[in-house]
Structures are given as C-alpha cells and as structure tokens.
Amino acid sequence: MISSATIPPALAEGFFNAYQAGWTLHSHFKEAHAQVACAWVDEFGTEVQFLDKGDSISRCQTYQGLHQKFITKRVGNLQKQPVKRKATIVRCDDLLAAKNDPESLQQQYFAKIKQAAIDLHQQHHTVDEKTGKQVSFGVVRMANIPPCIELTQFLLQADWDETFAPKIMAYHSRQVLLLRHEQEQHLDAVLKRKEKSGAMPQAFDNPIIRAHLNSTTAQHVLFILVATPVEEVGRDHDFDWAVIEPSSYRSIIQLAGRVRRHRQTGVEQPNIAIMQYNLKALRQDGKPAYYRPGYEVNSLKLVTHDLSQLVDEAAINAAINAIPRIHQPETLRPKQQLADLEHQAMNNSLTRYQTKGPQGLQAWLTESWWLTAVPQQLNRFRESSPDITLYLVWRNGEAALCEKTERGEFIPFGEKQNIKNAPTLTDAVKSRLWLERDYSAALRRLLDSDSEESQEEQAMNKQSKRYGELTFPENKDQGFYYSDQFGLFNRAT
Asked: Which pairing describes strands 220-227 and 164-171: parallel, antiparallel, or unpaired?
C-alpha cells in the first residue's frame, strides 16, 4: 500500500517491483503462495487485485495496466469535482536585467511576492463579524531556509499601506524542537477550516488571533506563513491562498493541497500565485535551477526556466490539481515540460529494465548488488552535507547552544562555530509577528505549577536538554545567528 494522492506511475511501479522481488524470496523461504495483493484506494472507492500468474516482468505489465485503469478512473472523477484551486503566474521577466545585482534582484523578487499576497488577500478573505476587518490566512512557499528567513525579514520591515496589517511567521526545520512544537500546535489549531459554509472560522476565537484583530486599526489583516517544503508534507492545514516559489511540479501540487484543504466549495478567482522563475533561475543563467529540491540535473536539463513555458498556463488558470503528476503522457517531453521532467527522472531511476550494474533499482533487484554497499554509494539517499545535532541548554538564567559529547556531557558550541544571538527586533517589527516565541517562557510552561522557585532553574535545564534540540549544517564556514523567532540562520541574512 502506497499512501499519497500524488504518486506518479513510475514510482508506483518501482515500489511494486521492489515488493514483488522481496515477496518472491519470502514465499520461497516460507513455502507460501507467490501472489501479490494490490489495493488502489482513493476518496472515490477501493479496488483489490491479486497478481499470481507469470514471471516478474509479466506481472509488472499486468500491474501497469491495472494502475493505469485506476488512474484513468481517478482523473475522470477529479475533473468532476468543484474547482477549489486556480493558479496564476506572477511575471518576473523584468527582473532578468538585475541578475548582476543579487541584492537588488532579491529585493525586487520579494516585492513581487508581497504584492501577490496583497492581491490574493483582497480576493480571498473573510470578514470578521466582531470588528468588520477583512482577514485571510496565506502561505508563501520558499525553496530553501535562507530565502525563507530573508523574505520573512523583508515582509516584517517593508512599507505597507496603513490599511494593511501583516502578521508574519517563519516556518522551517532549523528551529528548536520545543518552539517548533508550539508553533505547529498553534498552526494546527488555527488552520482548521471544517466549519459549515458561511460560518466564522474557528481561528477567530483563538486568543492570539483575536488579540491581533482587536489591537489593530487596519482594515486588512494578513496572516502570512513563510515556509520551506516542511509545509508540503504531513501538515493538515487549510489556507485561503498561497504564493509559490517553484522547485518542481510536485512541490506545486503538494503546496496547492494546503489551500482550501478542508473546504468543499469552489472558487472563481485564482487563489494560488506561482512565480514565473525561482531565485536560482534568476541568479544563475543556463545552469540547472529546479533542484535541491527538484529533479533537474545537467543530464536532464530544461531548455528554459520560464515556468509559463514549462506548464500549461491555461490549464492551471482553470484548475490546478494532481492530474499532470499522477498521469504520465504516452510521449514525454522532459526538457520542455516540468511534469514530464519528473516522470522521466522517475523512469530513469526506478523502471529501466535494461540497466545493468549497481546504479539502477532494477539491476539491484535482479542481480546481486544487494549483497554490497555499492548501490547506496552511487545513489545517495539525500545529496547534502550532514547536520550536527545541537541543544539550546538553559544555564544560569540564559540559553546557550551546546553539543552533546559521547559521554552525555553538554559543552558550549556557539562561539566555536561562530554562532551569535541575532540582533534584537524593534517594537515595530515585533508588532508584525504572527506568533512571538520565547524559549524561556516555553520551558517554564513545561514545569509543574507547584515547582519551587529554587528548583525552577534546575528543572528548566533538564527540560532544555530534552526539548532544546536543533540542527546545524556541518562544514559551514559562514557565521550564523540564532533567534527564537527565526531559528538558526546564515549571518548574511
């Protein structure tokens, strides 16, 4: 059973082949039947088939036919559903002239994201019955942590019309475990939109949200989550709108799934804005740009990085859904179409039957490379430098970044690796924070209410060693800042 609404055919086939190979060995050892049970389940129904005839190749061909039948039926059902998501492309052609000035280019790019957020808010907001203010919850998806932090700071410090009150929050993986937990608890509570049609969102009763609405004089209140791909998977959030810096078609579909996720009614106006280029494409002419995350490599390079040429713009204007990802065309154009690039990359890795040697999955299944470590060396699970686990330990009335030795001792780390506390935020910037986080206050909330003051410091120290974990990128030469609001981020940000 493969659990996802956006599985491409090659990925499903690769999983089937791997399972079939393993089950064949199991059935020989246990003298069990060799048949494989396959179930296709979606919101429209369930189908189960048993594959027990023929060799592995013929069973795979049978599986392909059954999977395609399921996808064809699913596509038909999806096309009958109310259109909950429509997308438009934000033009960035005018920024290409500024590629020799990276700082100016980034500021102009962020300004376009800000304007896209304003435009989407004006089309997709809810009027608060108590204050009459127009309120929306939106997400901006950035490809990596540095631009996520940089955009957050830009939006916090930017000039906004006096009728707009932005409330901004950064969301990424390089945050202290305890603070990220509190952040996710808040988002999970606020971004439930399972109320009846026409009813006020339950978020308006949340004390933090209500305090923001009551304290501002601005007519428009935008709650903006600036997130990395951590928002794409496993988060049951429902936003009114989204702005996407693209990395892959998968990222577009996954993030789109967080827009109107709990609501069943359709929309007339686009509620998703996708940037015409990502920052990599604007900065590095001719080199792969849709990678880390993404599928583009030198051996499978797109002819253009202009998203308006890589996707069917008319189609996403009408409706954005998973069809281009779950349905593979008979003829792929991997250098001209973003979705086809991903299908081709999946096929190359998972379904090339003629591949010999340890570099391909099929060869790993049909030859004896599984007896060695060579396939893992040639196919890295994640091509990135490893992270070091740090702990924000509470000692003597303050928090300090420490590393844990093999003997379980916590020793100072920050100064050695040039990590410093981020500059203090001004009151004006603080007023624009969606959720102001405080590590010491979060630690105190973990303590027993009857704890004696003399024991408080000791208890906070103990809890910080358990819940103060965060990751630091190994072999990084540049300096870093730490902030309760932004987590760990590059000094240049």
From this structure: parallel
Residues 247, 253, 256, CA angle at the centre, nearest 5°?
A: 105
d(CA 270, CA 120): 8
Residue 151 near residue 227 (C-beta atoms within 8 A):
no
User: Could you tell me which residues come within 8 angstroms of residue 425 by beta carbon, excluding any fewer than 6 positions away?
Assistant: 156, 433, 485
Residue with tokens 């952040």: 183
Contact 290, 278 (CB under 8 A): yes
Residue 457 bridge partners (DSSP): none
For residues 157 and 431, the answer to whether their CB atoms sit within 8 Å is no
Q: Residue 480: pLDDT above 60?
A: yes
- Which phi and psi (to 5°) does residue 313 adopt? -65, -40
- For residue 437, what is the enclosing H or E element? none
Query: For 108, how many CA atoms within 13 A lie in the half-sphere containing its CB?
Result: 17
pLDDT digits (tens, 9 = 90+) for 107-124: 999 999 999 999 999 999
Quick one: which of 190, 104, 260 has its CA closest to 435? 190
DSSP state of 174: S
pLDDT digits (tens, 9 = 90+) for 7-45: 999 999 988 988 988 888 888 898 888 888 899 988 888
Q: Measured between alpha carbons, how far is 393 from 410 in angstroms, rounded to an integer?
A: 8
Residue 273 has a pLDDT of: 98
| Strand pairing class (487-490; 241-244) | unpaired
Cα dihedral 174, 176, 177, 182 sign: negative
Q: What is the chain's Cα-based Rg? A: 25
User: Are the C-beta atoms of residues 439 and 399 closer than 8 Å to each other?
Assistant: yes
Q: Tell me the pLDDT tens digit for each residue of 127-154.
A: 999 999 999 999 999 999 999 999 999 9
**Is the distance from CB of 125 to CB of 165 less than 8 angstroms?**
no
